[in-house]
Amino acid sequence: QSEDYARAVFTMSRPLLTEEMVEQRVAARLARQEILTRMPLPTISFVIEESVLRRPLGGRTVMHGQLRQVLLTGQRRNVEIQVVPTELEEHAGLEGPFTLIETRDGRRIAYVEGYKDSRLHTDRKPVRELEEQYGILRAQALTPRASLVFVEKLLGES
């Protein structure tokens, strides 16, 4: 996320966050982007819902900056971004966002985000289920190349 977009997201959060908390969360979100350039370069894959790319959080200028950030990130050698079109009739990711991580020592873990109840899974069964779900979701999404073309098109419209 771009800094302005992250700030818009946290500013709109309910219940309201203090200005200090907004700035802390923005700083933390930006600091996490360091992983994109960590050596050795990790392979990172994102699947993004089209509606998220079209919702002008923070206004048109902020969203334009966010789309540029998505495009620049997706052009990195170690990053693949795929967009799930809104018109798609099948969608394996309707239960909400999750993150799959493989540690340097080969352990696989999953972080599932939910309203006031995010969870870290380390047991193989739930992690394997989410890996399967992610595989299906990626197959349903546009290819990484088509996704970047799609984001470029949105940038031209903004």
Characterization of the model:
The chain has 158 residues and is α+β, with helices and mostly antiparallel strands. The chain has six helices and five strands, in the order H-H-E-H-H-E-E-E-E-H-H. The strands form two sheets. A three-stranded antiparallel β-sheet has the order 3-4-5, covered by helices on one side. Strand 3 and strand 4 (108-112) form a beta hairpin. 15% of the residues are buried. The model has no long low-confidence stretch (mean pLDDT 94).
Summarize the structure.
46% of the residues lie in helices and 16% in strands. By secondary structure, it is α+β, with helices and mostly antiparallel strands.
Helix content: 40-55%
Strand count = 5
List the helices and strands in order: HHEHHEEEEHH
Number of separate helices = 6
Radius of gyration, Cα only, in angstroms? 16 Å
Instruction: Report the major sheet.
Output: 3 strands, antiparallel
Structural class of the secondary structure composition?
alpha+beta
Strand line-up in the sheet with most strands: 3-4-5
- Parts with pLDDT < 50 across at least 5 consecutive residues: none
Number of domains: 1
